[in-house]
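User: Fold both of these, please.

Assistant: Here is the first one.
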Amino acid sequence: MKLARIVLSALLALHVLPLYAQSAARPIRLVVPYPPGGIADMLAREVATPLAAVLGQAVVIENKGGGAGALGSSLVKNAEPDGLTLLFTNVGPSAIAPAMSKAPPYDAVADFRAVTLVSRAPLMLVARSDAGFNDIRQLIAAAKAKPAAIEYSSAGVGSFGHLSTELFAQAAGIRLLHVPYQGQAPATLALLTGEVKIALTSPSAQLFDMVRSGKLRLLGVSTTKPTELVPGAQPIADVIPGFDSQYWFGIVAPAKVSDAAVARIDGAMRKVLADPAIAAKFRTIGNEIGSGTPALFQKLIADEASRWKEVVKAANIQSAD
């Protein structure tokens, strides 16, 4: 009987080991829910090659744009929870898109499991130099004196800049006038042409050049503490305690993925993100390395989903569907 058990165990091992090797040999699909060329795509490609090296397993980027990130997110939600299909998500599809939709195709908290917070990116609050205010307090005072008279631009209704500016207005007790554009480039141009007075937007070389030339004034940054990504900027939290609005990117998996798969991918990603060269590359595109455990990242997603839903409701922002 004992010999039979030994033989059976050996046979099972011979069966299981090839299956494990076969799974490990299959590539990991890292789904980016946007077309190629954007920041999400750039960051995902920056980590994919070193991640593959650490894992000893191919990592293939798959761009699935559409529906403000919903198409790629739904693909991963419905994938096998085997740790081989992952989503390179951000605050848009994981928190804002569901908040803006009357019938979201997924629950970003219940349908996904957080793996690694990859990066964070602040927003910079800028104003035209002739707008009539030189700092955050003066802006708030001017907005209180003339409600809804100060225009701000964004990349569109429901964009992160739009909702972050509404969050700022709600926290400051003011009303601003939203002027949406179709993308970040025309929203920035609107500042130069005088169509709007302010914007709370992603840092860029173009904006820094405008600040240096005197065309724009840097009023603040959306982090709670000063950041080297927007040097010299006063945190908005200095004036509005607790204000914090940062764009983030991270990796999530289908909800039923195993603890072992999460630990394996997160452990490898931590090694990748510890490389100073990766941190330096991230900084060139306005991001800094993320930190924390998968559990903390899961909490961040839940908190963000709740927060942006409340902002949308309080601002009475109409959803597109």
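And the second sequence with its predicted structure:
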Amino acid sequence: MKRLTAIICVLILIAASLGGCASSADNSKSLKIVATILPVYDWVKNITSGAKGCELSLLIDSGVDMHSFQPSAQDIVNISSCDVFVYVGGESDQWVDDALKDKVNKDMTVINLMDLLKDRLKNEELKEGMQGEADQAPDEHIWLSLKNAQESCKAICVQLAKLDKKNAKTYQSNCDSYNDKLEKLDNEYVKAVSAAKQKTLVVADRFPFRYLTDDYGLDYYAAFSGCSAETEASFKTIVFLAKKVDELKLTSIFKTDGSDGKVAETVIENTKDKNARVLTLDSMQSADSKSGSYLAAMRSNLETLKTAFKE
């Protein structure tokens, strides 16, 4: 953090010399928006589609996992001078306070989504068989809930409309249209889960999907919590998950995107039949999601779950 603060102090004059971005009162200039991660960026992209004078950029766009991200010098400049900064607000965003401490644009609107969703937040939990220690911090993976996505989009839309009245109707129309798509997909999840005979998942990996499972009444067992830094599962964890696969007669277990799947393969090797297959759920924790958009990624996750439900 000291290094980050030093970088900010060095760059503050540089950023100031760039003149910053347009203020909300100056309709002749663009509204510069920075979003930290792919899901949030995609929400804002859909809300601002067709709006004149909006410049949207994705901060973590190099495939770096959000849990290990630290802003570069250029990132600090971009953040410090933007008009709207949208971020999740969880443990992985602890660098944000220092990055904003000496911001050039003193009129910047900062949108912390976890603050906006405070009534919907859930703490990380240490489930039976999960490796690690209990952490009562709020689970930051809020985007893995279509319901949270809808609430977030509404809140973002309200803030943008206040700042940029000339595009307010466009923002609202786009938000309504996009939320209709989110609600439709949400209903598809409800239908798929209600038809499933087996509603328990075994995830031989980190588990960032608590909001997703809670939304639809799914149960789960996992190797690690969502923000765990651990990647090597103990023999006890492997055996526990393997026994759950046998007890529940599961033919599929899950890993997250970006995982090498070694823990999942080891779990399968310790089951009786050793023939379960590994399916991948997209956590969208880095910008290299193969799905390309938030809706596509959530639809892909639905199709993956339906594959497991049918077996």
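The mean pLDDT is 89.
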